[in-house]
Each structure stands twice: as C-alpha cells, then as structure tokens.
Amino acid sequence: MSETLQIVATLAAAEIVLTLAPDAVTRRVAAAGLGRRDAGTAFLVGRWLAGLLAAALALATLGSLVETLPAAARRLALLGAVRLAVLGVAAVRRAFADTDALAPQPIAAADALRHGFRSTLAAPATAAWWLAAFAVTGAWDLDASARLVVVLALPSLAAAWTALRAHALRADPAAPPSSLAV
Fold this sequence. Notes:
Elements: H1 3-18, H2 24-35, H3 37-68, H4 70-95, H5 109-122, H6 124-137, H7 144-171
C-alpha cells in the first residue's frame, strides 16, 4: 500500500471511529429534523461546509508551520496524538452513556444552516481535530490531489455518518446511543 493511501485510510478510519457514538451535534441534527426534516438537513449541510473550510485551512496552515518551525510541528504532532487519544476515549464513553429522549425543536432551515456552520467553525475542537489528525499522519506532505481528496472526503464522511445516526435517532428518539454505535 502506498504511503499516500495509508495516510488517507488512516484519516478516514480515525474519522469513523471518532464519530461512532452519537454526540450532541448528532442529537441536534436529529432534534431539528424531528421538528422539520429540512432543518435537520440544513444544519448538517452547514456543518459539512464548515468542515470543508476548517480542513482546508488546517491542511494549508500546517504545511507552512512544518516548513518554518519544524520543532513546533513535532510538538504539535505529539499533542495531536494525545488529543486523538482523548477524543477516542470520549467517543467510547459516549457510546455507553445513557441520554434523554429528543425533544423536537422547530427551526427554520436557513437558521439551521447558519447554526450548523457557525457552531462547527467556532468550536476549538474542530481546529484541534484537523490540526492533530494532519500533524500525526503527515497529511500536510501529500501532493495536491491527495490533499484535495482528504479535504473533500473526511468532512463528507463525517456528514454522511452523522446523517445516518440522526436518521436512526429520529426513528427511535429514546434509543440509547450504544444501540446506534454499530
């Protein structure tokens, strides 16, 4: 397997593992969708667009950081590895957490789109995730076409998985997250 394919596959696997358990975002998408299906979809599209932007910015920024400050980049990779481990543990814990049932939250589709975009882009965890994942895997050193695949595929994979989990939550809002983690 080529190094490029290994990096892309590692990033995709990490994205899947870290998004297995329903989190607050998935529950918001499902709750908005219970009120109006188009609002849930709009929220998810907003998150996806922000994910694309955050991934592209992180990948571009990390490349220049590595070239100008290699020692800082090594520290970022180490901190990134710790951050990814913490995220992984949190995902496993969420999978077994008991949560309350969803309450429908009627919201206009345009408001849901803006909220999804802003809440994703404003979250420090979004930037931390992308910087950590790219630093640990060395994705910043991929050629331009592979970087484009990474930037497009990872937010799309997260959005598709979130949509599937939100659909499952809408089907049975009282279902415990552990039953949706498969």
